[in-house]
Amino acid sequence: MGLFKKNPFGHILFLKKWLIRILAVVTHQRYKRFNKLEIEGSDVIRNLPSENVLFVSNHQTYFADVVAMFHVFNASLKGRDDSIKGLGYIWNPKLNMYYIAAAETMKKSLLTKILAYAGSISVERTWRSEGKDINRKVKFSDISNIGKALEDGWVITFPQGTTTPWKPLRKGTSHIIKKYKPVVVPVVIDGFRRSFDKKGLRIKKKGILQSMVIKEPLEIDYENESFESIIEKLEYAIEQHPSFLKVIPEKELLAYEEENKARRYSSKS
């Protein structure tokens, strides 16, 4: 790899590689020692094509979720079976791996800018900005950049656009799927909300069992399936369809409500 070789977004791959290595070393113990990460589906990762893959996941923190995926996906590609044991897998990380994130979030600090360079596709949110509800048109350049990333490699998206569970999925995800026809891989995560703060930068509680289940790619009729049908299929796949609320223990639902109240109170004070 040339020293100044760049990816389609103008990022120098040599620099990106070192950023991913450093971030991996700094964060590894968050999923291995302080809290345990239970993984399922490493074999799915190894059987995927090297590009045009869209991972669709529920969302629990801003950054801890996607950092864990970088660990798991790279470990799986290096032969680890449902494990991130031995950090050697990150020495030659997959560099054509991206994640979709809100542009305003990725511009807030030096750390978020570093995380953005490591692989984010920053998009302007159409429904919310700076804590307020808005109604903004989709930027065609954002859609184009997602397509560019899919053409180059793998893309991770959190279609609920929020860390609050069981919220409706944004329809833009189905438009991307219909337009670019990627292999769609559902990912279901849990435990991150309990172990990290909302941003996913600070460990809130130790000894939490975190889990990540990588499911088999979905069967999608790109030409004939409706946008609504694709969204519903995704909601079931990442276990965020409203019907799942019926099987969630009442105690857990109350815990989510209390946590959301605490977050709203802290944001106002």
Topology:
Layout: H1 13-32, E1 36-40, H2 42-46, E2 53-57, H3 64-77, E3 97-102, H4 103-106, H5 110-117, E4 120-123, E5 128-129, E6 132-133, H6 140-152, E7 154-157, H7 172-180, E8 183-190, H8 192-195, E9 209-214, H9 227-237, H10 250-268
Parallel strand pairs: 1-9, 2-7, 2-8, 3-4, 3-7
Antiparallel strand pairs: 5-6, 8-9
Helix pairs in contact: 1-3, 7-9
Account of the 3D structure:
By secondary structure, the chain is an alpha/beta fold. It is built from ten helices and nine strands. It has helices at 13-32, 42-46, 64-77, 103-106, 110-117, 140-152, 172-180, 192-195, 227-237, 250-268; strands spanning 36-40, 53-57, 97-102, 120-123, 128-129, 132-133, 154-157, 183-190, 209-214. The longest helix is centred in the first third of the chain and has 20 residues, at 13-32.
Quick take:
The protein is 40% helix and 16% strand.
Query: Cα-atom Rg, whole angstroms?
Result: 18 Å
Major sheet summary line: 7 strands, mixed
Low-confidence stretches: 261-269
The pLDDT mean sits at: 85
Count of DSSP E strands?
Answer: 9
For the record, give the distance between the C-alpha atoms at the N and C termini, rounded to a whole number: 50 Å
What structural class do helix, strand and pairing data support? alpha/beta
Write down the oligomeric state.
single chain
Please write the string of helix (H) and strand (E) elements.
HEHEHEHHEEEHEHEHEHH
What fraction of residues sit in β-strands? 15-25%
Strand order of the largest sheet: 1-9-8-2-7-3-4
3D shape = globular
Helical fraction: 25-40%
Number of helices: 10
